Amino acid sequence: MNWISNYVRPRINSIFSRREVPDNLWSKCDDCGAMLFHREIRDNLNVCTNCGHHMAITPRDRFETLFDGGVFAEIDVPEPVADPLHFRDQKKYPDRMRSAQKSTGEKEAMLVAHGEIGRTPIVAAAQDFSFMGGSMGMYVGNAIVAAAEAAVEHRCPLILFSAAGGARMQEGILSLMQMPRTTVAVQMLKEAGLPYIVVLTHPTTGGVTASYAMLGDVQIAEPNALICFAGPRVIEQTIREKLPEGFQRAEYLLEHGMLDRVTPRKELRGELITITRMLMGLPPAIHGDLPSPDETSTSSAPAEDSETK
């Protein structure tokens, strides 16, 4: 044994040996294929810094960037019957649910919360496409009803972020019944004179599009989001014709009058603050961390000073 064996060889091995790199450090853009560092893409709200492609974002991450200071309170949603039809395909329905809950860390496909954006109280509901395709089942119906009831109770707007592949087949007709249920929930808001704003994200399809996702007072979509009832591939196979470029994408629907705005994700919070305050008859938001000054306190302050003098 000499100094080459004891020192030089281990040193060379340590320099050239392969180091294990965690798999979750990099993400690949679905559109342009660019490799993006996880912190970089998280800071950019899951929007590709190379091409601007809007990738999926979980409801919890969305709420952390939407609400003031990332602070919000979750609203309880009544639990439906676990497996009403005893449905089974390749797996039992309860097994699929447990698998989705384990992979997403969420209880179901929709998260409902209450908080403030720009010092404006709101109720927000967001679907999680990674949870069984964001499919609309009885829980999602209960979530929207609970969100509408909370908005009426707090006298504040309801903002809903849709992302779904349609109704949940494992619940059959009970899933389709959520379409009229959620329509009635939206009507509750309209009768109370409260704004209902929908942000359609990629993809929003099926029975979700045919119900609560297209009933907003203001319809906003993220860029290039697929918004439809039947998908373009199904339509092409049915009519045996080639569809126009960009058919059923957000920009196409905006041009044809089905949407009010197409807004990038990084600009969405500011736009929602402006719209909610406008619809609630409130003055424009004051930029900064302090709340708007109270008109009564500011108007009475000079009078008190004059009395003391």
Question: What is the name of the CATH class of the largest domain?
Answer: Alpha Beta
Biggest sheet record: 7 strands, mixed
Structural class: alpha/beta
Shape: globular
Q: Determine the mean pLDDT.
A: 88
Features:
alpha/beta; 2-enoyl-CoA Hydratase, Chain A, domain 1; disordered C terminus
Explain how this protein is built:
By secondary structure, this protein is α/β, with parallel strands linked by helices. It folds into two domains: 29 residues, no CATH class; 229 residues, 2-enoyl-CoA Hydratase, Chain A, domain 1. Helix content is 40%, strand content 15%. It has a seven-stranded mixed beta sheet with strand order 3-4-5-6-7-8-9, with helices on both faces. The chain has a two-stranded antiparallel sheet with strand order 1-2. The termini are far apart. The C terminus is likely disordered.
Secondary structure elements and pairings:
Elements: H1 3-16, E1 26-28, E2 35-37, H2 38-43, H3 59-66, E3 72-74, H4 93-104, E4 110-117, E5 120-127, H5 138-154, E6 158-164, H6 172-176, H7 178-191, E7 196-204, H8 206-209, E8 218-221, H9 232-239, H10 250-255, E9 261-262, H11 265-279, H12 295-308
Parallel strand pairs: 5-6, 6-7, 7-8, 8-9
Antiparallel strand pairs: 1-2, 3-4, 4-5
Helix pairs in contact: 5-7
The gist of it:
This protein has helices at 3-16, 38-43, 59-66, 93-104, 138-154, 172-176, 178-191, 206-209, 232-239, 250-255, 265-279, 295-308, and strands at 26-28, 35-37, 72-74, 110-117, 120-127, 158-164, 196-204, 218-221, 261-262. It is of the alpha/beta class and 309 residues long. Strand 7, helix 8 (206-209) and strand 8 (218-221) form a beta-alpha-beta unit.
